[in-house]
Fold this sequence. Notes:
Structural class: alpha+beta
Amino acid sequence: MIDTAPRAVGGRGPTPGVERASAGLWPVLHATDPARARLAPGYLAVRYPVVEAVHRDGLVRRAHGWEEGYRAELAAHRLLAAERVLPELITTSDTERSLILQALPETIDLRAPGAFTALVDLVARVHTAPARHPPDEAWAGRDVRAALAAAAPTWVCEPRAWTRVLHRLADAHGADHLPVGGLDLLTAHHRRLRRRPDGRLALSDAATLSPDTTAIPDLLALARVAADLDLPVRGPALRALYRDRVNAHGARWSDAGLITALHDWSAAVGVNHIPT
């Protein structure tokens, strides 16, 4: 039986036996038996936005300190349930802001034959999933058409370039496309890539997926991963591989459109150089 009741603990540090790790934008607290993630919600929200406890019975409990983070990860699981790119979601608790997931202990070596191509295919399936599955109500009304009518996000420093990115997305996916992205692949290739029981490559969680980030930062992250691993998939070869997989799943990217989107993204967020 899984103990899901939140418990308050005294002191300022984490529960003994628990290790803190960083997962991109989401600091994560990892715990294994006999340690449990038993932190008061207020402490959790301030210090550890996500607490992850791995249990002996092959399940993982992910508890969120913030309602927004819990709803976002739940929306990601609902969107991607049929894509088989995440652990199976067993159950959830709205009151405790927690998800119980199937544990995936087997890690992936991206240098193995076909592994990086499988990662690119996973990314392509995530980016095109909104065309196959209705988005969760938490992400309703967040499509490209709505984004074009709204002000640019606060993290965008050049709104006109952001608008051009959105137009490129509309060309490739349609104006009703939900521009999901932000898979935190740089962290994932070190720690978060797993193998599902069906043999498919999967991410251990979807905590960083966002409905307004777009596919572009994930493509840039794939380039960084390939460089880190010294894989011969760079520039034109990586774009060709991504286009092959994403277009096979329903998109309509051209190489010229993808290059333009990469440069527009660079201008929109103030990045001086991107690999193309």
